[in-house]
Amino acid sequence: MLSVIYALSFYAATLMLVVGVGLKVWKYARTPAPLKIPTTPAPTTVWGVVLRMFREVVFFESLFKSNKWIWLFGWMFHMSLWLVLIRHLRYFIDPVWFWVAFAQPYGTYAGFTMVLGLLGLWARRILVERIRYITSPSDHLMLALLVLIGASGLLMRFVTRTDIISVKAYMLGLLRLRIGELPSDLILQVHLWAALLLMVVFPISKLLHVPGVFFSPTRNQVDNPREKRHLAPWAAALEK
Q1: How far apart are CA 88 and CA 198, in angstroms?
Q2: Model pLDDT, residue 240
Q3: 137-158 and 186-201 are packed helices; what angle lies between their axes, rounded to 10 degrees?
């Protein structure tokens, strides 16, 4: 019964995640930028914008320039999360791709730096007065959920061993629309249900900055207001 309930919840959460994020991205893409507002110094060519976005997404360039401590914990968390996600791909593919296999040991220990980065960001929201003032309960709940996912994953890896072969067989079955038997380990259940909760709340949370950064006009605009007049579609329609 537990396996069936989780399977149905997994399908529902996946649908909510894909549809929810897709609708948000569609809304972002259709929202006009009425002003030319790139943060200077800004690139004056399209390829310059691409390079700037790459530095922003991979290295958090603007955050590094503004606050080194926040950058350290933020970059540590996000890069560790990528390694952890790559490592988890092995539960959904068979055979395992070579680059996923290569990332396994790095993804394992990235769990520690992921949780450490989260704790640093959480401490900032508690200890820094001006940040604490603008922090809402949902910010604490999201950080607590992410820490719970990371900590439970580490517990399964280094403290209470889980039958990962059975877990992989179950996950592969879900992808093929077959429901197998999911191990009932307590820590595994906490980890999996917390991950489902994250999938559900992702489209309505601040975590949408993941796709949202690509639609930020301060980052994705070319700084060419003298060479080319910027005119939003609705403004262009008014001029006709």
Answers
A1: 16
A2: 61
A3: 150
| Residue 93, H or E segment | none
Q: What does the pLDDT look like over 25-51, one tens digit per residue?
A: 999 999 888 888 898 889 999 999 999
The DSSP annotation for 64-88 comes to: HHH-HHHHHHHHHHHHHHHHHHHHH
For residue 221, give the H/E element and its range: none
Average pLDDT, the chain: 93
How far apart (Å, rounded) are the C-alpha atoms in residues 219 and 53? 7
> Tokens 């890069």 map to which residue?
79
Q: Which of 210, 220, 217, 203 is nearest to 24 (CA)?
A: 203
Give the Cα separation of 83 and 111 in Å (integer). Answer: 8
Query: Which tokens hold the place of 201?
Result: 């709340």
Q: Which of 129-133, 134-138, 158-162, 235-239 has the lowest mean pLDDT?
A: 235-239
The C-alpha angle with vertex 61 and arms to 55 and 62, in degrees rounded to 5, equals 130
Tokens encoding 196: 């489902």
Tell the residue number behind the tokens 């994705």, with chain if given. Answer: 220
Mean pLDDT of 70-80: 96
